[in-house]
Amino acid sequence: MPNSLDITARQTLFLLRGAGSTRKITFASDWQTREFHQQSELENYLEQARVQRQRAIVVVDEEGLPEVLAALRGKARPERAFRYGILLVAADPSERLKRDSTPEILDVVSEKEFKKGGPELHLLRALRQLLRVEARSNSRIGQQMLEKLNEIFIDLSAERNPQRLLATILVKAMDLTLATGGLLYMVQETDGELYFRLRITNDQSDEVKFQHLSNKVVENSVCGYVALTGKLLNISDVSMLRPMSLPQYHKSVDYSDSDKMLSILTIPLKNSRNEIIAVLQLVNKMAEEGAHDSGATAFEDEDGSLLTSFAAQAATCMENVDLYADIQRLFEGFVKAAISAIESRDPSTGGHSERVAKMCVALARATTECEVGIYRSVKFKEEEIRELEYAALLHDFGKIGVREEVLVKAKKLYPYQLEGIRDRIKICKAAAKIAYLEKRLKHGGAEPSFEREYQQRMKEIEAYWEIILAANEPTILKKESIETLDRIRSDQLLLPDGAQISVLSEDEYQALAVTQGSLTESERLEIESHVRHTYQFLKMIPWTKDFRHLTEIAYCHHEKLDGSGYPRGMSSHEIPLQSKIMTISDIFDALTAADRWYKEAVPTEKALAILHDEVTQGKLDPVLVELFVEKRIYELTQPKEMNKVA
């Protein structure tokens, strides 16, 4: 007989039912044999074999077969059923084989043949058959486990939240190995020393506990030993660890939420640079799947192999999530830098983009939660809300391409233009005085009419200055003021050398004649061009799939439903819903912003009234405006004292 089969036979438990057909059967002295008479005895022996991971072959006659089958099927775990089998002693083996296909029966032999020449040959045949069944079953289980691992790896690869990923890794590892408890340490190197930075624990409950810490890794614990050596440790019985040797079970570091610690399986998780980034520890393997109170047993070698494969994939997923987080932080840093660049050119709009983004996110969530109306089917994903948030943060970046003097223009005239007019006013006053003095010299003295004429001219010129100052304010200009400006422009003042001068140039007149605001038509178009600049800038960035609509959302934030918006004059069905959300938030913040020196902040009540007017005119989405008001989105960015809306 082959040596390997002989070794396997000595490791197998042979159980003989004491009955007439099987009485007085003797076995080899070095084999493990037991005789039983009651079903309870058989069940005890089977339990012993299960705990010790032994194969068991039961020798039974036809009379005792039902009792044995009941014991086997009641005690054997389904995935471990291949470790148990029956050698049936029957009166007519061939007839029995024809009419019976019981899977637990390994072989059928007659009583005469079984006793003739010793039973070892028949038992070895049954054992060989048991090994064949075991091999086939191992192949089947391997395929099932491979499919399960693939499902787990797909779930891990799809997770982008670092905390959820770590929790999933721990729970799935416990599930794969039937562990009743486990912990996961995140490891970080600082100044050449390893530290445990985060501890995640679970005890087969729904709650996964997180604990932030900063403990230096030392060898006097199982987790510390694995973190420093990079070796897998499979400890079948913690109590058998030798004193004064490494590693040692340390309650303050290793898993300690169980009343009794028996077995520990600990493995390091390494990144692509072979650096240890985490330590995974599983404890107390369940003796029966799903039976938490069935007692604990040791982890098998195949658990270690399985966990090694799992740990490699888990570490890759953790590294990918870290990389994704690094990219996210890089992008957020870029966004903040872009906003800082915009605000450095236009300090008056400081905080505008952040406030708009905050309101956009809140309004998008309110739209998602809406269960009635035309938007009840709209359910923004978290990725889409984040895309809207970034689009809102970057929606005004194109202002970096607008001339700074136009961008920060607070009055109708630029400071240098007003200074030029002031100088001309002075020149005109000096010219009037020179003309007055020349008349006096020419006529040999002061004539009352000369003095009156001079004073009248001085008052007129000073009145011009006051009118220009008043018209320079970005308020609504009345028709009478425009007529006065027209008269000032046409008034030609005579200089001492005979030349004529006008107080206002054509450009200055056009600027002062603006009826509302501070921008001329050309300047307004230049400001509006910031949308195109934003688009040209954003479209050059190779956005990820999550942000593929960001450029278009930002591009449409000044479009109106009736086509009166800019830069493309789009109508309602052409404008993305996210852009409609941003338009409302942008208008409200522009009206109520208190940090713009060229205008006073509009009260919240009046700003909301303006939004409703825009709805009435068909410019803004009525449902979104209603949600904006109903959910009090505007309160997110407004001081409390400004939020008292009637």
Low-confidence region ranges: 77-82
Helix content: 40-55%
Number of helices, counting only DSSP H or I runs of 4 residues or more = 22
Largest sheet: 7 strands, antiparallel
Mean pLDDT: 85
The fraction of residues in strands falls at 5-15%
Cα-to-Cα separation, first versus last residue: 98 Å
How many whole angstroms does the radius of gyration measure?
Answer: 44 Å
Q: Which descriptor suits the 3D outline?
A: rod-shaped
Given the helix and strand composition, which structural class is it?
alpha/beta
Number of strands: 14
Task: Report on the architecture of this protein.
It is a single chain. The chain is α/β, with parallel strands linked by helices. 50% of the residues lie in helices and 15% in strands. The chain has 22 helices and 14 strands. Strands 6, 7, 8, 9, 10, 11 and 12 form a 7-stranded antiparallel sheet that branches. Helix 13 runs antiparallel to helix 14. The longest helix has 45 residues. The chain is rod-shaped. 31% of the residues are buried. About 1% of the residues have low confidence.
Characteristic terms for this protein:
646 residues, 7-stranded antiparallel β-sheet, 5-stranded parallel β-sheet, 22 helices, rod-shaped
